[in-house]
Amino acid sequence: MGAHVSKQVERRKAISTEKKTLVELKQTVGSHYPGSDYHPPDRKNWMSGLDPDRIRINQIVWPGTHDSATNKIGIPLVTRPFAQCQSLSIYEQLKTGARVLDIRVQEDRRVCHGILLSYGVDVVIGDLKRFLEETDSEIVILEIRTEFGHEDPPDFDRYLEDQLGEFLIHQDDQVFSKTISDLLPKRVICVWKPRKTPQPKPGGPLWGSGYLKDNWIDTDLPSTKFESNMKHLGEQQPAANRKYFYRVENTVTPQADNPVLCVKPVTDRIRDYARMFIAQSFARGFADRLQIFSTDFIDEDFVDACVGLTSARVEGKA
């Protein structure tokens, strides 16, 4: 018992120290970078506002959501706080400005997060199609993966093609250097990541797992995650030279050995430092490598942070 209490005391000290580290770094370096003052007049149509004829796919800093379809996961007030990473529906996230969705599914096509379940993936597809029908030039990256510990839904690739066929941008390495206008009327880059069934075929309507990469570390320590994100970003090539999307997730994750197990208070340890992360990527010389930037509980300021840098790139200021 005494050893457990001692361990918990040390964990609390480590978290407190790391939170203080980020606060002091922000006070020292700030959160300003090219485009940081930009606010899109219409977040629902922010790509249209930056001119689809000019903006290339590899110039975009894509605002993304982590565990996107968890707004109704589990049982309210019982299990939901332990797995909910977003409070908005998929449609509301897209309307707010998110352009990358992270969807986890299990055998019966229901969305899940670990052992907890949510609605069927049809709800995700319905919200996405509603958004696409209400907009003209917004491109969305839809990542769907089979959750760890689960089996792939049967014939899921065929299901995705049937549901989204008219919108799907086929896998093609040339896509990265094209403008949004070059790709229209196609609107969705769908990355399907099965666990056991074959990966999507080259040139087909779905993109394989190698086209969306990240370096996830499972920690609830905010400065540790911040510096890990920075380290791995620095190891990437500039976005203009890559033939895949690279994601940085501005999140930390509850740990089983810590008494704070609810997602919101844990991820809030790092959530407010998204702008500082972008500013630090400039200070450390690799802002040109930032591409997909994801968060829990997405809000307008996070979207503006990403769109602002995208605007600066299009204008040749970054």
TrEMBL record:
Q: Which Pfam families match?
A: PI-PLC-X
Task: Write down the SMART domains for this protein, in alphabetical order.
Answer: PLCXc
Q: What is this protein called?
A: Phosphatidylinositol-specific phospholipase C X domain-containing protein
- Give the organism the record lists: Rehmannia glutinosa
* Residues annotated as domain Phosphatidylinositol-specific phospholipase C X: 51-193
